[in-house]
C-alpha cells in the first residue's frame, strides 16, 4: 500500500509570483491616498496593523495597490490557512454563487450546510454522535457554545483562563483576559464569568498536574463546580501569545469537568483546521472536548464558524433556539467543503509539520544570536517567540514589546508581514498559510534576522 507521504502532492499553480518585492515606500502613494479616503469614512476604532491596501492575494503573497509584494506570515490572523485565493476554494465558491447564495437555513435548508456538519463530526476528536450549528464568526460560535452549555446544564457560570481571548461581543469581552483595546469603555459586561490561572510553563514552571490543581482549586473556591455550565479553553492560546500548556494540564481539566458535569468547550477558532498539523489542536493533547468551536480557517477566507458538540448536549436547545440570518451561508459552506477536501488531497497536515520544522529551525538559529528571544513555542504552523529584556531570559523574563514593535516595523518595510500577540505585546507570532514554501520562510527569517541585528 502506498504510504500517504509517498503520494505525490499536486504542485499548486499560483496567480502571483511567490516572492517578496518592494517597489515603493511602504505605504506607497496609492495606499496613502486610499488611507486619506478611509479616514473620512471609517472610525479609528477599526485600526489596521499595516495600512497598505491589498489589491490581490494568492498563496502566501499579498500584493498592495502600489505593486509591493509581502510574504504574509499572518494569514489574516490564521484564516487563509490553505493559502490566499486557493484555487479549489475559489472554484467551489464561484460555482455556488451561481446556484444559491442565500435562503436562510432555518427557512429552507441546503446540502452544503449539512456536508460541513458531517465533516466537522468526522474530524473533531471523539467517536460519538455529534451535532453542529453554523454561525458567522468566532465570537458568535463562543456565544452559542456558552448558551447551549447553559441550557444543557441548567447552570449559569462560565469559566475561562488567564491570557484567553474569545471575541468582541459583550459576553466574549467579559471572557477575554486583556481589557485594552477590546473592552475599555464598552461595559457593563456579562456576569457569571470566572477567570482562573492558566498553565504558562515559560513563566510559572509548573507541571501540567500542578497547574491544573491550581486552576481547579481557584474555580472551586470562586464559583464552585455546581454553578459552572462550562469551561472554555483554547488548547493553544492565540491572542494570549501561543501559550502551549504543560503536558497533562488540559486532560486534567477535562477529567474534572466530566466528573462535575461541566461542559468542556475547546475554542479552536485560531488553533483548529489543520493549523497545528492535526485537524484540531486538541488531538495533540489527547483531549476529547464535549464541544469544539471552529472558525477562521474553516472556509478559506469566507465568514463561517461552527459549534460542534456531543449530540446530547447540542440537542438541549429547543427547536428555533439556534440560528441567525447568515449562519452557514451556502457560499461559505461550499468553500468550507473545499477546504476540508484540500486538506486531504494536498496532505496539508504534513505541510503544517514541514512549516514547524522550517520555522523552529530558523528561529532556533536566531535565538542563539539574540538573547532577547526568551522562548520559541507552538505546534505546526502556529509558532511564536516571546521577547524579553536583554539579559533576563533566565531570570525575570521581563517583557520586551519595544523589540517586537521594532522588528514588525523593520520587516513590513521590507515586505514581510508578521503579527504580534501576547498579553504584554511581547510575542511575535507566525501563522503562515500552509502554502508557504521553505524558501519563503527562509527569506522572511533572513529579514527578521536583519531586524534583530538593528535592535
Ligand atoms: C481563540 C479565538 N476565539 C475567538 C475569536 C473571535 O473570533 P472572531 O471571528 O474575530 O469573532 C478569536 C479571534 N482572534 C482574532 C481577533 C482579531 C480581532 O478581532 O482584532 C480567537 O483567536
UniProtKB/TrEMBL annotation:
Catalyzed reactions per annotation: (S)-3-amino-2-methylpropanoate + 2-oxoglutarate = 2-methyl-3-oxopropanoate + L-glutamate; 4-aminobutanoate + 2-oxoglutarate = succinate semialdehyde + L-glutamate
Pfam family, one: Aminotran_3
Swiss-Prot/TrEMBL keywords: Aminotransferase, Pyridoxal phosphate, Transferase
The keyword Transferase belongs to this UniProt entry's keyword annotation: yes
Pathway this chain belongs to: Amino-acid degradation; 4-aminobutanoate degradation
Classification via InterPro entries: 4NH2But_aminotransferase_bac, Aminotrans_3, Aminotrans_3_PPA_site, Class-III_PLP-dep_AT, PyrdxlP-dep_Trfase, PyrdxlP-dep_Trfase_major, PyrdxlP-dep_Trfase_small
PROSITE patterns listed in its UniProt record: AA_TRANSFER_CLASS_3
Names of the cofactor(s): pyridoxal 5'-phosphate
EC number: 2.6.1.19, 2.6.1.22
Gene Ontology MF: a single term: 4-aminobutyrate:2-oxoglutarate transaminase activity
UniProt enzyme class: transferase
Family named by the database record: Belongs to the class-III pyridoxal-phosphate-dependent aminotransferase family.
Stated name of the protein: (S)-3-amino-2-methylpropionate transaminase
